Structures are given as C-alpha cells and as structure tokens.
C-alpha cells in the first residue's frame, strides 16, 4: 500500500509542476533560446517573442515585443508575462531592470556565444522548464554532431566569403570574431576575410585581392540584394574565382549563426554543399 501511495504522490507532484508551468505566461527573448524551447517541446506557455525568434512557425506566430537588444519595458509588460527566458544579449539593462522591478522574473541563459557552448545552453534551458531528461538527450545528440565536424578533413586551401545583408544596408563580409568566422573554421575552410575585424563593407580591390572561391549568404540576404545577378554585379565580384564559376551557397543564417539546436546540422549541410562544388 505504501508503494502505491508513494507512486500516486510522485505522479501528483509531476502533474502539479506541469500544470503550473502551463498556467504561467512565458516570454522568450533570443532566437537560440526560442529554438531550444521548441526543440524541447517546452514552448506551450509562450505568449510572446522578440524579433530574432524566427523559428519554428509556432514561435513566429506569437506577437513580438521588438528587437532583442533594444527592448522597452512597456512593450514587454503590455503582454503581462509571469516569467521571461532570455538570451544574455537581451537589453538594454535599464529596460530589464524596470521589468524586474514590477515582479516579473527574468531568467537569463548566460553562456558564451560559441559552438561548444550549445549543449550547455540546452541543458540550462531544460533545467528552467523541467525538461532535464529531454534536454540531456538533445545535448548529447548535439555534442555528437559537433564532434563529427571535428573529424572533417580540412580544406584550408578553399577561401570562403560569408556575406551578411539586410534590406537597405550595404552588403558586409564577415571577418574574425564573428559567428560566421567560427562557423567557417568549424567546417575546415578558410575565411577569405579572416584578417579583418567584424563585419565590414568590401570594395572591389579587396575582393579581387582576397579572391574568394565560394560565396555564402542567406536567401533573404540575396533577395534583399536583388538576386544572384545583382550579387555577381557587385564591383569586383565577377573577377573573383567565386564570380567566375558562379559558386554561391545559400544557407539559413538563423540556423547557422544562431548557435542553437539547428546549428550543427546546418554546418554539416554547408560543408556538404561546399564539397559538392567543382573547385580546383
């Protein structure tokens, strides 16, 4: 009889925890955190997101409170959240302080913005949402995918250019200390603009000098530029090996650079696409 009573008590405790979580109103700040919640099937209590949370469709359907780094307390509090699960990049600090001052709990997932930290990020999100078992399984799978990238034969002779572009802005190439630079290093290729810092606009002379073999960018970036013809028409681009051969690879930049659960898989797909190109 005691055994049955103990089992019943444990079940009741589990149901109570799940019910309370479902009754709360959660808000997510950060695309990587939103994707992790969805991967853990812990997104049922979400009532809002920020502008960087763009996957999956169930997250996109939620109302947005604005850009991750430029939040206002008014836009967040207007949706009456009980708790906020946030990336460490969320801000400004003044807005977060105002939100906490009225009693809304903000849980920040403070992990380095690196590939190696993705499994730990998953475990921390899982711990905050009572999904420890699911989180451990996902974290171990991601660790395996990241380890597989380390076994790829290097192709450092291949110079790859990552272009970041949004509507209304000048296309910029990724240099060192960027997510794109870490992504290219992870798949064993050379960042054609790895000698410069951050994301910068590139002139024709620099393009010809650095001679990228492959251009990588997102479909939405290409669309904002005006399509593939507009890409190859950029000053100096036609004179590069990439331009001469039409070597362009389109990626999901949110998956590639978000450093969330989809990132290892997107890195693997990028390397496969590079290997499939007819390169010298």
Automatic annotation (TrEMBL):
Q: Which Gene3D superfamilies match?
A: Nitrogenase molybdenum iron protein domain
- What InterPro entries does the annotation carry? ABC_Transporter_SBP (IPR050902), ABC_transptr_periplasmic_BD (IPR002491)
Domain Fe/B12 periplasmic-binding, residue spans: 25-280
Task: Give the PROSITE patterns listed for this entry.
Answer: FE_B12_PBP (PS50983)
Q: Which residues form the signal peptide?
A: 1-22
* Alphabetized UniProt keyword annotations: Signal
- Name the Pfam families on file: Peripla_BP_2
Q: What is this protein called?
A: ABC transporter substrate-binding protein
Origin species, per record, is Halomonas dongshanensis
The record lists the lineage as: Bacteria, Pseudomonadati, Pseudomonadota, Gammaproteobacteria, Oceanospirillales
